[in-house]
Amino acid sequence: MDYISRHIGPDQQEQQKMLDALGYDSIDALIAAAVPSGILADKPLELPEALTEYEAQSRLRELADKNTVLRAFYGQGFSSTLTPPVIRRGVVEDAGWYTAYTPYQAEISQGRLEALLNFQTMVQDLTGLDIANASLLDEASAAAEAVGLMSRVVKKGRRVLLDSRLHPQVIKVASERARAIDLEVEVANLAEGVVGEDLVGAVFAYPGTEGDIVDPRPVIEAIHERGGLVAVDADILALTLLEAPGEFGADIAIGTTQRFGVPLFYGGPHAAYVAVREKLQRQMPGRLVGVSKDAEGYPAYRLALQTREQHIRRERATSNICTAQALLAVTASMYAVYHGPMA
């Protein structure tokens, strides 16, 4: 069977067979029966003539030039950054990188898989943890995923502590995720101490939303004594100077990689990261790129972990977010490659 017949269909004969089975003369008749008349357009859409790719890019540039570019002071995890021209042109503006879809066909995705492996390695190095995934949607949903991960591991606990020093959007999203899985949420300044038992774990800010830096060790020790886990929401650029979460006992590290050359994009999208200790790797959300060998014995990249339940058995899934910010994860990893290792 050739490519077209496998990927573009159904053809007219197949369409007619389906229409006969349904009892309609045409696709228009099927649509008229299925779609309420009140939402059907009564005239063709008034669309402009089609443009070539070059013409479309020129038109988009013309519209973009009308924007007034101002300095952003929003903060709360969002920072102005410079994207090196070679990355902007070679990655962000190159349509070959655009899809975030899972690279099921590893044999034609080696370059993208290698770039995502670079992202994982970068996150592992900076967080000091054993294993990192190939990105999540954003910092807030990464915190929510960390809450879900902790609840799957610490089955006896019913409370989760969220540091009041986290960014506001992180607290809101993580709180709703916790409530959705029947956890009691408490927002408190964890630097002032941990109170109570029955803990699943805590999410700690490092540094806080106002830039303050607090030693996480007392919090981590207190949570661990109570049988819980600790996720540290860490600014990944700050980790080039601060002690790595893995070195002071964190079980999970999360955050955004926006500061690594990813434009603000008026608030998103931005690739998040999750890193965990090895004992938690089977509970990690998202996907993991690994290195194998091909039939000739050469190194080959592949998806080493992606739980199929997130596609076909949602109730058993570690995560129901099936898409990653792959393009922006690649951008962040190339930003690290561009600047090189720290001296």
Task: Please name the defining characteristics of this protein.
alpha/beta; seven-stranded mixed beta sheet; 343 residues
Word description of this protein:
The chain is globular. The model has no long low-confidence stretch (mean pLDDT 89). Helices cover 34% and strands 14% of the residues. It is α/β, with parallel strands linked by helices. The chain contains eleven helices and nine strands. The termini are far apart. The protein has a seven-stranded mixed sheet with strand order 1-7-6-5-4-2-3, sandwiched between helices. Strands 8-9 form a two-stranded antiparallel ribbon. The longest helix is centred in the middle third of the chain and has 18 residues. Helix 5 runs antiparallel to helix 11, helix 6 crosses helix 11 and helix 7 packs parallel to helix 8.
Major sheet: size, sense and barrel closure? 7 strands, mixed
Shape descriptor reads: globular
Backbone CA Rg: 24 Å
Class from helix and strand fractions: alpha/beta
Helix-strand pattern: HHHHHHEHEHEEHEEEEEHH
Number of helices: 11
| Low-confidence runs of at least 5 consecutive residues | none
Helix content: 25-40%
End-to-end Cα distance, whole Å, is 56 Å
Number of strands: 9
Percent of residues in β-strands: 5-15%
Mean pLDDT equals 89
Strand order of the largest sheet: 1-7-6-5-4-2-3
Briefly say what this structure is.
The chain is built from eleven helices and nine strands.
